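Q: what sequence does this backbone want?
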């Protein structure tokens, strides 16, 4: 007679097997990176198909927009265009004056870098990291470490690339650090993510540092990762604890990291000069604004 209750695999054997598999996966983690990139390239078309319903909804909303709404939007855009034209005229004067001053000082003039507009396809579902997936990849010349900005300031940098898409690590991620300087006095600091989209921390600030609430932090250009002069965050609080050796400085990112949709990829001058002759750069040069 067969027994009614058949005894299965013991819990100790299952635990031992799980530990062995975990150790093997940790040891083979770096070797599996090409496999991950290949899988990401294969799954990229699926991400595009997943975005089709959203694009259809946007198309439907634009199609059924009322004439009055379009008229108001047109008037607002005309108003903004006039304001931007006035600012552009002032900036052109400042640019010419800056060139004259650089010529007097014998300093080289910074050329405009190559740029490309990209769209966010996916927002991270990883609870330990904050990143987004964009719809440009190796085919468009995107590279690991490339800075990404929006209309307000620095958003983050590219950390993973495949053929059709790339992963951008946001400024607020705990592993992200950006060299910054205070525009008011050029004091150089390091801004680090805290895991919160609306808050970053400036660590290891000596108590003698001249820093105030409201100071604007911009990229310092150190490390040759982020171009100099792009807005990063604005100081919102400074805590001076007698029991601590440094100030606790919190800042709010200029970019709206929880509402980003369109981003701008930037090619630094050093990378631009080496990639302008590549086939990928030549095929995408017409897409750059």
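A:
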């Amino acid at each position: 007679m067969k027994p009614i209750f058949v005894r299965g695999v013991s819990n100790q054997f299952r635990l031992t097997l799980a530990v062995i598999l975990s150790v093997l996966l940790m040891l083979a983690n770096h070797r599996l990176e090409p496999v991950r990139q290949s899988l990401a390239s294969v799954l990229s078309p699926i991400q595009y198909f997943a975005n089709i319903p959203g694009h259809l909804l946007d198309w439907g909303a634009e199609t059924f927009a009322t004439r009055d709404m379009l008229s108001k939007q047109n008037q607002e855009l005309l108003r903004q265009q006039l304001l931007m034209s006035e600012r552009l005229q002032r900036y052109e004067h400042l640019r010419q004056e800056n060139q004259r001053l650089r010529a007097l000082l014998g300093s080289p003039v910074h050329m405009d870098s190559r740029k490309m507009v990209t769209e966010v396809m996916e927002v991270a579902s990883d609870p330990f990291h904050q990143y987004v997936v964009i719809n440009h990849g190796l085919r468009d010349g995107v590279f690991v470490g490339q800075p990404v900005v929006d209309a307000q300031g620095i958003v983050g940098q590219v950390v993973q690339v495949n053929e059709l898409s790339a992963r951008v690590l946001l400024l607020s991620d705990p592993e992200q650090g950006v060299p910054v300087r205070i525009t008011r006095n050029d004091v150089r600091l390091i801004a680090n993510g805290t895991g919160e989209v609306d808050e970053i921390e400036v660590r290891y600030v000596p108590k003698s540092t001249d820093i105030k609430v409201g100071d604007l932090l911009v990229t310092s250009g150190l490390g040759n990762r982020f171009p100099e002069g792009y807005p990063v965050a604005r100081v919102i609080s400074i805590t001076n604890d007698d029991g601590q050796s440094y100030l606790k400085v919190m800042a709010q990112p200029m970019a709206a990291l929880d509402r980003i949709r369109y981003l701008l990829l930037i090619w630094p001058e050093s990378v631009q000069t080496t990639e302008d002759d590549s086939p990928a750069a030549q095929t995408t040069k017409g897409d750059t604004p």
